[in-house]
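Morning run. Coffee first, then this:
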Amino acid sequence: MEARTITPIVLDEDEPQPSSSSSSSARPFTTPNDTGKFTPNTIARLTGLSTKSDFNGKLARIGHFDEEKQRYEVWLIPEGTRNSLRPVNLQSLSIAEEVAVLGDRLKATGATVGLVRNILDRLGQLALTAELLSETKIGRVVNDMSKRFHSHPDIETTSRRLVFRWRDMFRQSQAAARMAQSAAEGQKSQMQQEQQHQQQASPTPTSANGTPPASPAD
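And here it is:
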């Protein structure tokens, strides 16, 4: 459970803070918005820690950003312990990786109401493609949430909205793919017909006296 009552652990507190002029170019992650910051509930990977190097590679859920301390509040996965990290020590995942992590957390038997709400909120922020939906099967997982948490109207409503949105997007993607395939086949057929017409319209080569040239065998 991701408790918020404990004091966050400050990792690598003894290391010097990066200056604002150098941190933007040194950050090893990309962010989904224009502010240069992680969106709350994003899943990130810890990296570049020296005094707590055993934490490197662990995953964490991003909380709020403390402007004064220039650190993110994060919760380690799956421990749920609360920590405080500099932006340079957080690395974003690919969308496919993050969706896989979020899906696994939803499928966990111990998933709490608060956790499910956070994950659904994050899934709503991600720009999923039809390929990712097909690959991760996240739509099925989210659809199950509307059944498992039917006693919580907000979770049921959010889950259904996500599923309906993804279903429409998937169908539109399939329709666009069929149209593109049909157009490509039509263009190919037209080119073949034009080639046939050109061959039929081409005059038969003749010799100087007007008769077709003899074949080498003659």
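The helical segments are 20-26, 95-107, 113-125, 130-136, 138-148, 153-201. Good start to the day.
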